[in-house]
Design a protein that fits this description.
Distance between the termini: 19 Å
Structural class: alpha+beta
Helix content: 10-25%
Order of helices and strands: EEEEEHEHEEEHE
Strand content: 25-35%
Strand order of the largest sheet: 9-8-3-1-10
CATH architecture: 2-Layer Sandwich
Shape: globular
Number of domains: 1
CATH topology: 60s Ribosomal Protein L30, Chain: A
Number of strands: 10
Radius of gyration: 16 Å
Length: 201
């Protein structure tokens, strides 16, 4: 999560995902699976999700992170908040490698989110987009596909075994709910996930 043409910069499809089990990835989480019945799902506003697959091992995963604050320090444009993004990316990459072939050249990386949907967050979405591109470039990885930026929220569904991704741009009403949750995170409050985040179909 492939329905993407090689190295295209933008892809949107609203085709339904054929799924048996959907696992929701909430802010601060990382999920990795090698079960072809699983679809990973998340909703993004300013947040970023990376979807990474080991093409040799058929293992893939998704994370979901928000850089909730920025620092003006010249030394580090993102300040302490970058630790959250760096941890989220390292956690996902290392988990896919450890459960897969262990070879970086087998990883296919796709990134999503970073929308500017809330002026109160000072366009954290743009900062998130810059961060994830810089991080991956610095680690020697290339982004194979992306759907980043804009002024809307997204639902992203990823099939970790096949690598297929489906992205749906959400309407303004759905975006308002995403804004509310992200504001809670930005203010250092906890957003409680549902008790059961696995839906069976």
């Amino acid at each position: 999560m492939s329905a993407f043409a090689a190295r295209q910069s933008k892809t949107i499809t609203t085709s339904p995902v054929e799924r048996e089990k959907v696992v929701t990835v909430h802010q601060g989480e990382c999920e990795v699976f090698s079960d072809q019945r699983v679809t990973l799902s998340t909703v993004l506003g300013s947040c970023i999700s990376a979807c990474i697959r080991d093409t040799e091992a058929g293992v893939g995963g998704m994370n979901h992170f928000l850089l909730a604050e920025q620092s003006g320090a010249a030394k580090d444009r993102f300040g302490a908040s970058a630790r959250y993004g760096a941890f989220a990316m390292e956690q996902l990459i290392n988990s896919v490698l450890s459960q897969g072939s262990g070879r970086k050249e087998n990883l296919v990386i796709k990134v999503f989110g970073g929308g500017n949907i809330n002026t109160s967050l000072n366009d954290i979405g743009a900062a998130n987009v810059e961060f994830v591109r810089r991080f991956l470039r610095g680690e020697g990885y290339k982004i194979s596909s992306e759907d980043l930026g804009g002024n809307f929220a997204r639902r992203v569904m990823f099939k970790p075994v096949s690598g297929r991704v489906f992205v749906k741009r959400l309407d303004s009403d759905a975006g308002k709910n995403v804004v509310r949750e992200e504001m809670l995170v930005a203010r250092k409050k906890v957003v409680a996930p549902p008790v059961d985040d696995i839906e069976l179909f």
